[in-house]
Amino acid sequence: AVLLLPLAALAQQPAPPPAGPAEVVDPVAGGGLTYALGLAVIDAPTYAGGAGRELKLRPLWSVRYGRFRLSGARSSGLLGAATAERGSGASADLVETDRWSLGLGLRFDNGRQPGDDPALAGLPEIRQTLRGRLSGGLNLGGGFSTSLSYSADLLGRDGGGQLGWGLGYRWAPWPQASASLGVGATWADRQHMQTHF
């Protein structure tokens, strides 16, 4: 469960006029530096698949300049739709129209240590690695959107691949206020499952 408590935002620009049916929206044009800060209260397993749980308070941050974005863990939705499946780390929007989007990203995967949880004692370490990500989004209309992404271990450290899907709804009652709700699922290949489970 994630609760966002926004603290600050910078460089809010007037909204551009709506784009035509297939018109490409260039994120660089007229866009400056934008950032957002916040806090997250996270209730999550001590490790993926673990029975134990922990409650954590974590900072959220995201910085965007034109089509380039840098976000901390669980912060990718601060400067855009929370269901856009861009993920944390560094990312670039390759194509962005009013109907669909396509992007690339890189992030560090921290792996797992045997000391992360007593149930992991005696299991081998899962090494840190660099993951690459290809993601796409589709605006379904009426505030609904869907996304699809694939990420892979670029360093060959047995991280395998993951396919992610999301469906979201965004409600914007006023120009400066919006709320979003999303659901998603992640599928992992045999290599990822063998390494982690």
Briefly characterize the structure:
By secondary structure, this protein is mainly β. The protein has one helix spanning 190-196; strands at residues 2-10, 33-45, 53-65, 68-71, 89-96, 100-109, 129-141, 144-153, 161-174, 177-188.
3D architecture notes:
With 197 residues, the chain is mostly beta strands. The chain has one helix at residues 190-196; strands at 2-10, 33-45, 53-65, 68-71, 89-96, 100-109, 129-141, 144-153, 161-174, 177-188. It is globular and about 55 Å long. The protein starts with a strand and ends with a helix.
Average residue-wise pLDDT: 80
Strand order across the biggest sheet?
1-2-3-4-5-6-7-8-9-10
Number of strands: 10
How much strand?
A: over 45%
Helix fraction, binned, reads under 10%
Q: What is the N-to-C order of secondary-structure elements (H for helix, E for strand)?
A: EEEEEEEEEEH
Structural class: mainly beta
Low-confidence stretches: 1-30
Alpha carbon gyration radius: 18 Å
Q: Give the termini distance in whole angstroms.
A: 23 Å
Task: Give the count of helical stretches.
Answer: 1
The backbone outline, from C-alpha atoms, is globular
The biggest sheet amounts to: 10 strands, antiparallel
Q: Could you list some keywords that capture this structure?
A:
single chain, 197 residues, mainly beta, 10-stranded antiparallel sheet, 1 helix, 10 strands, globular, disordered N terminus
